[in-house]
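INFO batch 0412 | record 1 of 1 | parsing
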Amino acid sequence: MKAKQVFVLCATLTLLSCSQKQEVKEKAPTRVKTEILASTQITNGQTYVGVVEEAEATAVSFTGMGTVRRVYVAEGQAVSRGQLIAEIDDTQARNLLEGAQASVTQAEDALQRYSLLHERGSLTEAQWVEIQSKVTQARSQLAVAKKNVADCRLTAPVSGIIGRKNVSAGETAMPSQAVVTILDINSVKVKFSVPEAEMVAITPSTPTRISVEATGRSFVGGRIEKGVQADALTHTYDVRVRVENKGRALLPGMVAKVELGNAPAVQAEGTAAATPFISLPLTAIQRRADGSLFAWTIDEANSAHRTPIEIGQTAANRVEIISGLTSGQRVVTEGYQKLSEGTKVVY
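INFO prediction complete | emitting tokens
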């Protein structure tokens, strides 16, 4: 009887153990890379790898030399125009200011006393002009001294993000040495290199689509700036695409994929203008045993599903999706080898 009870207990524990292992296995989702589908008008495009750059970079420095007393900002911090950035020791500047103020007081007092003599004709005109000149010089030196004191406080000339802090408290700041660099990233530029043979097809209004893996998002590019000087070794030209950066998701240094297409203005005569469509990387397209095509889509519960699709023309390393998918769907682009119907994923 006891042996039977022991057997039942062992069987129960075994079933519980297997159940727990199964639950653990089910709770371990598969990691994949995905892309959210978006409509685009790029046709006959090329794909390049670029780097995000700030729209403008402003180096902020002191006009004179001094020991840095304090730096009030940190890298990555947002600052507004006029905000205090740093201070240097102003002891010497304030001493000079006090001397200048004393000189002004002395010169103005002399002017007041000699003005009576001038009115009585006891001073020559040359002496009177000299006294007035001393007052003017003293006031000018006072203005310079006040500016020197004000220059001990460094303020932001523009609004933006602190990109790099080059000086810390206790160090000696030199004239024109950048204390910080302020970056304007409300809009950014994506720089990429284009072979000389492909430059002729690019215009300032050529449509572009910018994908940045670090943000998991895609952006529509704006106006294009073409470089005019080629690299001596690679014979490529720098091209920059302006991108609006609402929310400041794009940061300088991020790697971007630039999909470049022909604008309607440079299409062959008689061809229709490009119409919006969605596309996928060629590597995301899968084929069944019967030859039909599908892609792995992710639902709201983060489960993977085979979705039948029909494809159209290819452009660079992407292919047009004619049917089966819609804009806004999330599709697996890498890691699909481990998937089966209903697999839980993370991305």
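INFO post-check: The longest helix spans residues 91-120.
INFO record closed
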